[in-house]
Amino acid sequence: MRLDKLIANYTLLSRKEAKQAIKKGRVQVNGQTLKKVDQHLDPDRDQVSLDGESVRYQPFIYFILHKPGGYLSTTKDGQTAIVTDLLPQDLVQIYDPFPVGRLDKDTEGLLLITNDGQLSHDLLSPRKKVDKEYYAEIAGIVTADDQEAFASGLAIDQGETCLPAELFIDQVDLDSGRSQIRLILHEGKFHQVKRMFQAVGKEVTYLKRLRMGGLRLDPNLDRGDYQEVDKASLLALLHLDETEATASQRKEDQK
C-alpha cells in the first residue's frame, strides 16, 4: 500500500493532508522518517507512526452493539439519534461503518456494525441461511396453533408468505393475557416479527434480538454498550468464508 494512502485511510487526515505530513517528516516507518509520499510498504509488517502515535492498519472494523430503544439503524444524521452515535466517533469518521440490517427504532438487542460490505452481504443473503433469534413480549395468549402456523410458513399482509419459523412459548400469563416467546427466523422481511404476530391477532409490545447465527448477545453487555471483535472470531461464529472478502480488500489496497 502507498504510504500516503495508509495515512489518509487510517487517520483523520485527508489525502492532501497526509502527503503534507509525510513531506514535513511527521511520519515514521519502522522508526525511520520517510518523506516519499508514494513509498510502498507492507501494512501487515511495517510499523507506521504519525507524530509519534502508531497508525494501525485495519481494513475493517466490527462492533457488536447492544442497541437500545430510541435509536435508528441508519448512518444518516437527522433529528433522531442513530446507532453509530454510540461508537467512538474518531473510528466512525475514519471507517464510516454501517449497521448490518436493521432493527426498528423501538427494538433492542444484537446489532452488528461494520464497514465490511462483503460480510454484510453474506449475512443478509437468504442463500447463507443465517438465522436470527428474538425474544418478544406479546399482548395475547400465544398457543400451539400459533406455533403450527409459524412452522408451516405464515401468510402475512400484502400477500407475503414467510419461511417456516420456530416459535417457542416461554411463559403465558392467563390473568394478564400476555405471553413471552422466542422466535427463530431464517429470513429478514420488513417488520417481520410484528407482522407475523399481527397475522395471528396479537401484538408485539417488546422485541429484542438475541442472536445472529452463532453470534449471541453477551448478557453482560448493557444497553448502549458495544464490543469490538476481530474478523476471524466473527466469521467462525457466523460460519462464513473469509477468502473472497480478503482477496477483494488486497486488490483495493494495492491501488
UniProtKB/TrEMBL annotation:
Gene3D superfamilies: Alpha-L RNA-binding motif, Pseudouridine synthase I, catalytic domain, N-terminal subdomain, RNA-binding S4 domain. Keywords: Isomerase, RNA-binding. InterPro entries: PsdUridine_s_RsuA/RluB/E/F_cat, PsdUridine_synth_cat_dom_sf, PsdUridine_synth_RsuA/RluA, PsdUridine_synth_RsuA/RluB/E/F, PsdUridine_synth_RsuA/RluB_CS, RsuA_PseudoU_synthase, S4_RNA-bd, S4_RNA-bd_sf. The keyword RNA-binding applies. Its EC number is 5.4.99.-. It comes from the Bacteria. GO terms for cellular component: cytosol. Residues 1-59 form the RNA-binding S4 domain. Belongs to the pseudouridine synthase RsuA family. PANTHER family: PSEUDOURIDINE SYNTHASE (PTHR47683:SF4), PSEUDOURIDINE SYNTHASE FAMILY PROTEIN-RELATED (PTHR47683). This is Pseudouridine synthase. The lineage of its organism: Bacteria, Bacillati, Bacillota, Bacilli, Lactobacillales.
